[in-house]
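> call design_seq(struct)
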């Protein structure tokens, strides 16, 4: 069988590498793909929201028996149910489920209605009212765009002045466009922030290992929020006791709450959690494979990915009896374009030296131009390493990052290390 991946990030590169090992899969296609997928997948230049052309491509390639949909704009636009309705087998959640990520109000209201532990919040569509409210709150606090911003629309404010600036940038200057027409002003919950992804067929839910995601653009967790500047595992704060509590009070109740609302969630779901020694709250939902977390985890999943995708689509995930995962330490660091997550310049030549054999490079914002690798996005390339010691993994990643160069290259220097 052939397989089609929808997306262009490092997760598609990581996923393709693992699917390539499966003898049941012949050809892997990727829409639109990136410069690192050459030799692994056939990249097709179609936009991830050009549903008509995606359907036409699938109709013209009947050997494609499975399509994995990753981008949030494709999921929230209803691509999965469209493909299924036209006889194409697709993995990913439907548009109703994707509201958990695309609408903060929907997610907050669901948590409130069904008693799922989450922060207190107020939603505003008026800048003046939002500013007045922010001036009388306890700090720090969190301001989030109501709409989708690929993880960038989260601002941690230490005082009223920072909050006023954030609100102005989002609601008046329209830093994130339509996504910032409404904002959430949310209480700040102290603790360790971790991400847990899980496969679910709407009945069973099988979590993957927890991952630390370093979302802020600069060292010391400073600067704007991003989709992720790096990640590490395991997460010391995510103890077996906390994992059990998260499963019983957040993971299962979320799927059951959606079901009570007439929504069957099939696909992968990510939970952004705040963990303390005796409590856990969900602060965001991600309705797709998280990018840096997937790059760290895919190679460690021993259960064939194809089996997981098929079982979820069949609504028979329990037939697998769980997910087998290698319990290694792991670290990955993302190299970005200078200026990311705001404006940045593209089309710089990328030079890559010989990296260590036990290190992997995952491409995202890269493209091939006349056989030459160039930058094409904000998050360009990830360096990842696994082993028995998280410190050793981190040092190896940073050693190999020095073998990569392009103009404006930026990466955090403190992922899973003390500097």
């Amino acid at each position: 069988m052939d397989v089609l991946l929808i997306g262009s990030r490092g997760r598609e590169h990581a996923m393709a590498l693992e699917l390539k090992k499966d003898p049941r899969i012949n050809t892997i296609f990727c829409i639109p793909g990136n410069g690192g997928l050459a030799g692994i997948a056939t990249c097709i230049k179609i936009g991830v929201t050009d549903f008509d052309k995606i359907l036409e491509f699938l109709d013209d390639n009947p050997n494609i028996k499975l399509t994995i949909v990753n981008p949030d704009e494709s999921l929230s636009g209803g691509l999965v149910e469209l493909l299924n309705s036209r006889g194409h087998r697709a993995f990913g959640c439907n548009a109703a489920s994707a509201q958990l990520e695309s609408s903060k109000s929907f997610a907050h209201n669901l948590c409130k209605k069904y008693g799922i532990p989450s922060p207190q919040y107020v939603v505003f569509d008026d800048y003046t009212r939002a500013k007045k409210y922010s001036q009388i709150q306890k700090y720090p606090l969190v301001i989030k765009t109501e709409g989708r911003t690929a993880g960038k629309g989260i601002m941690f404010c230490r005082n009223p002045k920072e909050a006023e600036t954030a609100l102005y940038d989002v609601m008046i200057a329209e830093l994130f466009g339509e996504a910032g027409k409404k904002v959430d002003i949310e209480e700040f919950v102290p603790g360790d922030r971790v991400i847990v992804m899980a496969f679910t067929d709407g009945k069973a839910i099988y979590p993957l290992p927890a991952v630390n995601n370093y979302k802020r653009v600069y060292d010391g967790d400073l600067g704007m929020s991003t989709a992720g500047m790096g990640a590490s595992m395991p997460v010391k704060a995510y103890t077996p006791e906390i994992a059990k509590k998260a499963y019983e009070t957040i993971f299962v109740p979320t799927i059951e709450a959606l079901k009570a609302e007439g929504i069957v969630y099939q696909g992968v779901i990510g939970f952004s959690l705040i963990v303390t020694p005796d409590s856990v709250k969900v602060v965001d939902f991600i309705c797709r494979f998280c990018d840096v977390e997937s790059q760290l985890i895919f190679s460690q999943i021993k259960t064939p990915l194809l089996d997981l995708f098929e079982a979820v689509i069949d609504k028979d995930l329990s037939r697998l009896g769980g997910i087998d995962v290698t319990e290694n330490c792991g670290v990955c660091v993302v190299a970005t374009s200078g200026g990311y997550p705001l404006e940045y310049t593209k089309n710089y030549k990328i030079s890559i030296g010989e990296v260590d054999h036990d290190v992997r490079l995952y491409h995202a914002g890269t493209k091939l131009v006349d056989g030459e690798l160039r930058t094409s996005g904000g998050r360009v390339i990830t360096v990842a390493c696994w082993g028995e010691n998280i410190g050793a993994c981190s040092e190896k990643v940073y050693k190999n990052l020095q073998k990569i160069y392009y103009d404006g290259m930026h990466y955090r220097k403190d992922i899973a290390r003390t500097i």
